[in-house]
């Protein structure tokens, strides 16, 4: 038995409730390879909020997704079964309560070997995922797409914000430092240390300049090299994209990437990796224009899922 | 057993898939008093379209609805069980195929005595509802809120558009002419006949001027008087409201009504009536501003449901 | 021979070039009773500009206009012939050059006895109209709908801005002071004199408070009483309406009027008057929301034209 | 020495940094009657956030304010000196830390007898104000404009949200229950108790229905009667206004009030009262349309300040 | 005699009715080389509609076009005469009636040897053009820019939608299969066959990946090679562009092209070809952001016209 | 003593009045290296206006700027002191009066050796800057980023518009022709002369095609080569960027540049030059989408300032 999207050649895509990609909304881990879910928590945003409505708008945009990936030549549901798991419960305004709820809800999913795709919410949610993963399987590798490192020590004296999760995660033993790579950093920083700090934690850092100058192939190789076959979480902050491609986010930074570049890096950089989870964060629909941010986000999730399906195919072909 | 909304004091209202009012999405008529459903068909719009996305946006706005109606002093789910039935299948671009599908899908609902609340879609869908009702129980009364009579004979020679459903419905024997009332007509017309035509069909017509000058109480009384205890369909075109209250619609007309006025007319004019169905049509989110049209629409549906609950209470108190 | 709109029951209203009300675009005064024209000049705006695109957006909204006025029971083109005259040439950035061009272009129209309906543009254009009228027929009465008196002496030392046209017009002998009425004044002022100044010029002033408290009938009577049978120009600043009804304007003031109220005042207050011209100014589409300002403007122009047609009918019935 | 706005007849209103009403930005309480300040905290919003950008957008809209109030016939700066005090420091995401900061920053202002006008932020900030006031002068009366009572006990188990401040304030001894009046309640509620709860605390409650049916004069009298000469805080949630007049807010409720109605209630209901502070909350610019919410908010603050000036005039005339 | 735009150094470009590029609106084929016209039909859209307002918004954006093409060093009106022909009549909601009207209206244009530039409308209109061309001159070559092949067999069982025109056209003998090239395909598909189907019809297909990797020169050469000197129709779906460059369309697909890339492909790939018609479809202004889609569309039409002028120059230089 | 931004790790960036980059608002030239100021004049716009609100929106976006430039490895405030100088006074609607005011206000700034960064306003303001510079230090070099040359002789007979400043500046002896370079020209032109005219004045012109084909390094070298060590003004029209990156401007032209390309050209092309002033013009917030134009503008100003700081560092290292 396999969960797959409703057939859009039978009913129009704008018909029916908005589940991700028109997948069935089933709260199960049985016979499921991946589960898309919302984590509508945006209390930790340091500038503009609104990402609590990210899951809803990404689902809306995902109505346009179809099952076959032309570039990877893979039909997702030939190899995978997937569901829309709904949203995780959160407590708006209260980060610690939310982290506790996240861990409680995510652990059974990771334990079941299902790959969750969490739609944020702000970037603080990744710490909740990493804590749950750690409880299930210990520290993991990380591939982090973003314009910011999010490894500040604190904001206004507060240790838990959307600018600090990766430092916290490292301190809590959730991350393997030298299996962690951060990609896309750019924009004005507080000080040189903003990037150096990540390096001090052992992280590989590819700045936007590195990628613009050395190219997609290089970037993909660096990801593969850093992560190897370590189990890995992939975290994608939508502000990795240039604001022209993703205006609907809290802290946009100019000089970023196109969706074509992002998708190519994903397709090549993530191919065959041992991925335990994905997230895509910081989509804030009330700041969007022409819904392009939500369309970009749903397209990137489609590439993530395609990578999973491709891996399954490779495994079944062995 | 009773279907009712998720408890928003337990989980935030922005958590989870968007069903109307956070009701369970169950495609059943068992133990159900009312069923909210989308009819995302907008092919028949004569000017600006986009109402196929009405159901989605009204559901989104309905997250804010709570169960107790202060003005009517009624808690809906003390008296009613309700579900989100999802959307009816439609065939975009093809009105006759869509009508056939509508009748097929709606008949069992009317037969089960469940009251459907159809969210359009454009106003052509009301003919589909009326055909289904006719098959189940014969011609009915009609309460029609709108700025237009929608009783033109044809548009560009075509008999089936969103400007003609009530003439067609009358011709097809779906309506009891002298139990039909049209409320809110205004704006430039093609000719005097536009209103006279309705009168020729036996319809009662209250123009916007009538209502602005004679008031809400008068309007409510005229509705009660016209309909009496005949089974009645209520059809609400969102352009009954002034464009300041509902810009997100295809053919707005200035000089209209506030949401307070609309709700008062509903609460008083519909109280105790023998209502077999409701619809709310012509919400076009891509033309909206500040989402106020969708909020207005969801609030009006709330009043409709409250009227149903109030009726149930009256019946159970007998 | 009569100029009238294309028949929208034959071709959809969204088909074809945007002329006002789908009238023929003919640059003639022969066989013409009224001529709609744009005056896309907004250099004189003191705060937010953009009204140079007013004519285009009002024309776009006017696609929805049909020929019969329900409230006045008059079919415009039974009594009138009307054209879209296009836009007057203006010189953006240069007010004096623009005034000269306006007078040159408007004089032949007033001389031909055609009633122009000028779509602004900012409120400075009314001085151009009044100068042309004065040359043709001397000083006239004025009915001025607005939230501001626009009778300041100067702004930043400059005598010609959109806040000064009526003082200049009075000084230049274009206006008959005691046949001038200003309606709708409200909002914070610089000083009490802002209204008193108008009174010193002999103008009647009805503040928003007067109208809200004394009502539409009173307002209509005051207009009729002030103007009598003197030839009169009607100038309508869209910010007479409340920002909820007309956000797309440069200097909105809360506490204003609904479109129903505006239309009723026009229908009753202007009935039978000897009107030589109309203008509707300060629609700034880039500041609009849901296009409601443009719809309001086109609806108000429709009432103006209906008043003309009603007058013609009265005259032909004598 | 008196602080007053820059003269807009000398420099255009769009020139210069955005202080409220073009007042000097001075962080002093010397020679100051009122001080406008932002409290950009929106962590406690239960549905849509974004009010942290309220102060900025209200300041932007306030560029249009001039010093003379036509309806009250008072020139504010003949009687008052006022400053833009800037924003209070807050800690986004952390409500208790923010409350502590608020009390620390507000106490010296209340102690100096300066009247603060706090621009929110969400409605949770009022508890911070009330705590500071209590420390300075004990419990006070309250006039609360809103569509919600905000006296829920908790949301998702959390005691501190924007839906609970007035219950908390009462429990903490900040409010005099029978000197507290809540005005404008409407919309769907969780249960009858939502309003009854307020009554149990001794609060007077005027629902939207009460006001729509009994009128502005009645409402003003009820305010005056409830408050008497007790020192009073005035708290205005922008969702008191109808969404047509204020779409840019987190939890809009249809069936509300116009800006004219709000201003009239303020002018008459607050006249002569012993007011110790004001706030205006829940303006969320990213949800606004045509900036009308910010214009409405700045206009309401103008009426608040005018009431203060009017009181000063009355006192100086004694 | 030659038709050319109004001189914008004489009158401001925002003055006057909106014809394409300020060309004269003349419904003639005499002395005309190209005729721009709207085909405002969007009934066949499978997801988001609104392209019926495409012609109006592209005309509005085209006000900025000037006559000289810097990259091609050609002044269009040195070589061509062009008009705005207005819009073709269509029947909204009824595709077969519209096709019949299209053929009837287009045939005389093709017969006169005038090159029509049709502004859609959705992509179904291309079948109408191809039918008219076939009647006049038999099957032709096709250059099709799009992110989708639009060669599905049917949608929900319906043979005529905006996803099927090129399969229908091939079946009806309008197209020469091996003279047809489709360019830009990307995004999730239903199945591999979506592209293979086109290949089965003999079409050349360049996917987005092909173009991103092999470049503009390669793409231009493939076009030239496929088409040769066969008479050819050029059809440009605006979603060929990336959503960052064209958000205002019904079914955007990420990973697309910039306007620079599109214009370069047109300038080089179409140079010297024997072009019988152009269309540009799927611009939906109500979904646009910052009007960039309409500006992009008008700029692409400018390149089309420049290619025509360049061809004329080459011919006259022989 | 040094002026630098408020520390955003201490107070949230959305707290407080909007000065550029959170710099102190001080109207001084003492101890100041650079001074950011608004010049909110947009009277000279030939098509869409609104740039008078550019300074406000760029300041709002600049809240996100931090002091360290990752690509240039420079911390601005290690080497520079900077202030927000507020806005220059202007006279809306009157260009000559505004030029006089500009010269009067700018001269002391240039005399003090402070580098002003002027935020427009439309492009006409650059002539005001150049006149002031000429009075202080004679003619200078110019680096002009734009899609238009702005060297037309006149518009509608008027010599002073935003399309003519560089011709006027050359005629008035403000510019050294062969030290002037114009970069990015593209889009339809009136005639070949539009670019040739610039060449006739001795200006170097790099069209968009030149840059797209020859690359960033070439462009940077051409700038360095043309300017050498001559004192130079840098003028950046935001429409140098592609409309996808900067929709919020009056006359967008497709086929433009990304923010990454613009920043790279600035970093490399301007490095080490003897820069006397900058401006960034034509940001029109009311035409923007997702605020991306303002974010782009503030990011480009950040690169300008970084170039200044880098130069200071180089000088202090000598």
Describe what you observe in this structure:
The structure is a homohexamer of 318-residue chains. Chain A is of the alpha/beta class and 318 residues long. Chain A has one domain: Ureohydrolase domain (Arginase, Chain A), CATH 3.40.800.10. In chain A, β6, α5 and β7 form a beta-alpha-beta unit. Chain A is built from 9 helices and 10 strands. In chain A, α1 crosses α9 and α4 packs parallel to α5. The model of chain A has no long low-confidence stretch (mean pLDDT 96). In chain A, the strands form 2 sheets. In chain A, strands 4-1-5-10-9-6-7-8 form an 8-stranded parallel beta sheet, sandwiched between helices. A two-stranded antiparallel sheet of chain A has the order 2-3.
What's the helix and strand layout?
Six copies of one chain form a homohexamer.
Chain A: E1 34-39, H1 54-61, E2 68-69, E3 74-75, H2 76-79, E4 82-87, H3 95-111, E5 115-120, H4 125-137, E6 140-145, H5 165-171, E7 175-185, H6 193-200, E8 204-207, H7 208-227, E9 232-237, H8 259-269, E10 275-281, H9 292-317
Parallel strand pairs in A: 1-4, 1-5, 5-10, 6-7, 6-9, 7-8, 9-10
Antiparallel strand pairs in A: 2-3
Compact description:
6 copies of one chain form a homohexamer. Chain A has 318 residues and is of the alpha/beta class. Chain A is built from 9 helices and 10 strands.
